[in-house]
Design goal:
The structure is a homodimer.
Chain A (H helix, E strand, L loop, with lengths): L17 E6 L7 H16 L3 E6 L5 H12 L5 H25 L4 E4 L6 E3 L8 E4 L2 H8 L3 E5 L2 E4 L5 E3 L4 H12 L4 E6 L20 E2 L1 H9 L7 H10 L3 E5 L7 E3 L17 E5 L2 E10 L4 H11 L7 E3 L8 E9 L3 H9 L2 H5 L2 E5 L2 E7 L9 H11 L6 E5 L2 E7 L3 H11 L6 H8 L4
Parallel strand pairs in A: 1-2, 1-9, 2-6, 3-6, 4-7, 9-11, 10-12
Antiparallel strand pairs in A: 4-5, 7-8, 11-12, 13-18, 14-16, 14-17, 15-16, 18-20, 19-20
Helix pairs in contact in A: 1-3, 2-3, 5-7, 6-7, 11-12
InterPro entries (chains A, B): AceGlu_kinase-like_sf, ACT-like_dom_sf, ACT_Aspartokinase, ACT_dom, AKii-LysC-BS, Asp/Glu/Uridylate_kinase, Asp_kin_monofn, Asp_kinase
Keywords (chains A, B): Amino-acid biosynthesis, ATP-binding, Diaminopimelate biosynthesis, Kinase, Lysine biosynthesis, Nucleotide-binding, Transferase
Protein name (chains A, B): Aspartokinase
């Protein structure tokens, strides 16, 4: 027996890296789609990687399960709803493992609980507390391709099955990548990457090759649906590069990585990463609030107690004659009814005049790390909106973002005007490449 | 503070008994059916019982999942198939818990794994090794109605999800009843109970009020589909009475309990419990086997090694001139191909002449504890069959059973002739009550 050459022999081959891939519901909508995804996974395995996949439920199956739930109970208990919905990923992950097996590669599927995805106990929108990947690490070590059910976990205290809420599978993928110290987390979706604006509104929108975590966080928070906020937060915390790309093409997508704090500004760097918009919010105005210390706090405490996350908040200066002020804020439309009920119950206590509810609004946001070092961005943005005849209803800013609330039917023209004003429109040729395949 | 009266006060109320109920797929086929089952469960709870329910997947959903599996892989790995199929009960149990909750009662659903159903590692037909009901006992103690996914468990050694194979939910129910020391295990199905024959073949068949474990074992083994063999074996071992009844009516069904060894024969006791039939078997004949010690053993060892369970076995006396014998046996038709392949590979080694395969057969069985003490049952049975013009192809007997193999198209007339000969036919009035609602 001759020992293999310690430098070049087969035993000394460096351990391959771990790639985590995420496939959403539209990528595994039926048997043909599952087989196509299986081939892509096998390609990554053949390229020498250990592959771990987080997968969502097939197509509309989660909605179908929700429909069944509503047929038996108008208000199903959250624990049972989680038990029901987690069956969706159980189906898709087992089918995906079978399809991989059919290609001659060994795959093992694991529920969130089996994969060690530990969460808090908030059914329906649990947060990942920890990932204990012992069982999937063993499966990787044995050479299996690992398929993990996205969107689900098990609660630390009660050992109950939980779901992570919207975008949960993205978060599962990034959390697995962090726990396994993966090289990259690839998020496969039905678009080619992150665009400078929604190509359905701005046909000349361009795909971004790279974007920082901070910019992506602002884009996601402002309505860009390609990645969810929590997933990007998780990736930033653990410094996991995310590659957002299409499961329907072989094109390179957008790499989300790096911090703006560590980047040297370059000539090439765009001032603005993109223009996001969001039509999912409503605006509530509390009219005639006594302008005393603590009154506003009581309003916001009550809303927080009802688990409602507010977005933009504006308080007018009080009219001197009355010493009353108006408080306006935006919130998800889905929380509108709860918020109005909560506020109405406070009316006699706080002593405000009335409540106004408006869900015919939209939010348009300009996002870019470069705006920190480029004065005049705000003026240029507002000038472009004025030129397009758009009226501003609320304004809020962060270090790398300017957001405005406008009438819902002026959202499209506001996005287009801003996109053009900041020279984001692709040339005609590029627009064909990126804009056309943006859906 | 006055202590409650230790005899009649509320604290001294005797602890209520535990009732385990099982509902099959046809009982929870859609939202309306699930709501009906929920009402029935709540009735049992209102009657003062602690209620534990084992539930199957909805209607045809298991077949739909199998169809999906076959679309992605012609031969899916057994581990992944179990992962896939167990999602079916996860859906039905969560929906059932929601429907109960909607009636104002608290219900908690548990997977087989969560309920402590510990099995061996044979995917697709795992056997229950143990039930560790700590978690469901806690839920009972807290006053919840407990819903457990039938048909599934978790393997002791590998912690993998397993399924129990056909009739698995019946077995789950009985195993839970044994572990919880329940008073009774109610198996809800789409027939009114156990009948003296299949009412589709014998319209005058009667529902049995009671039947012993031993008789029920023979009935199940001989083709009566109302209960599965393993479930009855489990119930006998732990002495759990099974009440088989319809989920579509309030009629009393059939109670399976007691041992024939402990029963005093009474004037009223019928000699024959029923006539069962089975069209799921095939017959294989190994022609011209050298009549030497060990040759037959090698054939049966090979079949056992291929996991094939044989039923009736007949060996002809060898023809003196050739010293060759024929061996015939019956087996499930689904194992026919495997058995023929296994036997063909033995041909040169064992040196038999040829193999014959016949799946146009049926088995008719007469079952009754009374036949032990009543001579002449066999003669009367064969006489009835002869009178109906039925030819016998194989015969096998046990202490409380006589089985014959006949041509498949003579099964119906054989069953009817035996049923009449042993005075099992109901009077016309009874036939309307029992026979008419037998499906």
């Amino acid at each position: 027996m001759v020992s293999p050459d310690p430098v070049s022999g087969p035993m000394s081959r460096p351990l391959s890296g771990i790639v985590v891939q995420k496939y959403g519901g539209s990528s595994v909508a039926d048997a043909a789609a599952i087989k196509r995804v299986a081939r892509r996974i096998v390609e990554a395995k053949k390229a020498g990687n250990a592959v771990v996949v987080a997968v969502s439920a097939m197509g509309d199956s989660t909605d179908e399960l929700l429909d069944l739930a509503n047929q038996v109970s108008p208000l199903p208990p959250a624990r049972e709803l989680d038990m029901l919905l987690t069956s969706g990923e159980r189906i898709s992950m087992a089918l995906l493992a079978m399809a991989i097996s059919d290609l001659g590669f060994s795959a093992r599927s694991f529920t969130g609980s089996q994969a060690g995805v530990i969460t808090d106990s908030v059914h329906g929108k649990a947060k990942i507390i920890d990932v204990t990947p012992g069982r999937i690490q063993s499966a990787i070590d044995e050479g299996h391709i690992v398929i993990v059910a996205g969107f689900q976990g098990v609660s630390q205290d009660t050992k109950e099955i939980t779901t992570l809420g919207r975008g949960g599978t993205d978060t599962t993928a990034v959390a697995l990548a962090a726990a396994l110290q993966a090289d990259v987390c690839e998020i496969y979706t039905d678009v080619d990457g992150v665009f400078t604006a929604d190509p359905r509104i701005v046909p000349a929108a361009q795909k971004l090759a790279t974007v920082t975590y901070e910019e992506m966080l602002e884009l996601a928070a402002c309505g860009a649906k390609v990645l969810h906020l929590r997933c990007v937060e998780y990736a930033r915390r653990y410094d996991i590069p995310i590659h957002v790309r299409s499961s329907f093409s072989q094109l390179e997508g957008t790499v989300v990585s790096g911090s703006i704090d560590h980047q040297e500004p370059t000539m090439e760097q765009a001032i603005i990463a993109g223009v996001a918009h969001d039509r999912s919010e409503a605006k509530i105005t509390v009219v005639g609030v006594p302008d005393k210390v603590g009154e506003a706090a009581r309003i916001f405490e009550a809303l927080a107690g009802a688990q409602i996350n507010l977005d933009m908040i504006v308080q007018n200066v009080s009219a001197a004659a009355t010493n009353l002020t108006d408080i306006s804020f935006t919130l998800p439309r889905s929380d509108g009814q709860t918020a109005m009920t909560t506020l109405a119950s406070l009316q006699s206590e706080v002593g405000f005049d009335s409540l106004l509810y408006d869900d015919k609004i939209g939010k348009v946001s300009l996002i870019g790390a470069g705006m920190r070092s480029h004065p005049g961005v705000t003026a240029k943005f507002f000038s472009a909106l004025a030129g397009a005849g758009v009226s501003l209803r609320m304004i809020s800013t962060s270090e790398i973002r300017i957001s405005v609330v406008v009438d819902e039917d002026e959202v499209d023209s506001a996005v287009a005007a801003a996109h053009t004003a900041f020279d984001l429109d692709a040339s005609e040729v590029e627009a064909v490449v990126y804009g056309g395949s943006g859906r």
